[in-house]
Amino acid sequence: MSDEFDVVVLGGGPGGYAAALRASQLNLSVALVEKDKVGGTCLHRGCIPTKALLHAGEVADTAREAAQFGIKAELQGVDLAKVHAYKDGVVNRSYKGLQGLIKAAKNVTLVEGEGRLTGRNTVSVGGRTLSGRNVVLATGSYSRTLPGLEIDGERVITSEHALTLDRLPSSVVILGGGIIGCEFASVWRSFGAEVTIVEALDRLLATEDEDSSKQVQRAFRRRGIKALLGKPFERVEHTDTGVRVTVTGGETLEADLLLVAVGRGPNTAGLGFEEQGIKMERGFVLTDERLRTNVPGVYAIGDIVPGPQLAHRGFQHGIFVAEEIAGQQPPVADERGIPRVTYCDPEVASVGLTEAAAREQYGADQITTYMYNLGGNSKSTILKTQGFVKLVRVADGPVVGVHMVGARVSELVGEAQLIYNWEAFPVDVAQLIHAHPTQGEALGEAHLALTGKPLHTHD
Ligand code: FAD
Is 436 among the catalytic positions? Predict the structure, then answer.
């Protein structure tokens, strides 16, 4: 059987389903091929379930710390089965919503099964061959491991296993201090586990501004999360009760389990991409800035394209290629303007250049920074959170980087993103009236300070 479509999308994660929905709005016929569940890693094994766990962890911490606010409550324990039920309920609700959206979209055919690129414009799924005027590759990513480090799903696990663990570990070693490692460290610590992060680099969240890393490291230390920094992992052995992890230098750590969080690889092996002549590098699909591969009519989006592996980048890619295919010539996005958030406690959020990157790009003498301590912000004091808003500015020019650490700063990143993407000058933001008392005022205060008119600053 042969089916002809304007667009065949391979993979129904945030990238793929966004491409399908937008293409449908633009009156293109679409085949959306998905081997598992639409929503992809983000909805089923990533963003959404982890944030539900983090929220459950926050509730546990709130109960634990209730007395600080004059409230008599105590944490009596964590019912993991109910935590999972809550998390799964959140995922299922969004999954149903997404299935409804896809069903309601005109001209979108959901094809269930594992697809393979079998021609320059054909995807085969089971016995069916789908032809597309255009093909969009959106097959996402998988949890990587290190050479020789075997994932058994019991004691040596990845984030996928961590999301469905049927027991609360009393101790955990996390290999990797990036976003996923820090988020699980936060969850498990909130649930009462002893947590140690092993990181080969000399800081946590190494792609963030150095000040953000330092602040998180301090906060984690206060929370009792240990971090072995600059200590490459050497090996893991099974013990009677769990694992023994050895790091360079011979130091050993015993724990119930080891979470391997060393990054995500592109899901592209064995899917026919190379056979069709698509240019690849270390498994990633290479594209130009308009997300075109070297093969005419074939696009690649989301985690398989080199760059930050984030769901909102996938959504943007999906919308972009649909509009491109429809001939709308959408503007190319500045990848540095994509907001980055780590939802651990405390949260870390940023957009634009780190101080180090800005110094390198513009020259050290061209960069000024200002760090506003959340201690001067009433809402942060009410929430009893510590942290900062840091601005990186080019001399007499716009703000090119915003870095924030503290409870709920993820909710400020939208404003930070406007500041960066609209190349705002400090004076522009300083004159905005922020509602009081909100954490958003911290952004206003930092810009006031940069214009020489600090109001509620501590230094
Ligand atoms: P995916 O979401 O991986 O989707 C790819 C889809 O393609 C899958 O559904 C897969 O089944 C399907 N597929 C693959 N091969 C085939 C085939 N041959 N045939 C048919 N279907 C196929 N990002 C954020 O922005 N915020 C977060 O808070 C966040 N938290 C995360 C937490 C964790 C633990 C993890 C692992 C990731 C997190 N991410 C987060 C990253 C985010 O999940 C990814 O960036 C995003 O899902 C990438 O979207 P995608 O469409 O490229 O790929």
Answer: yes
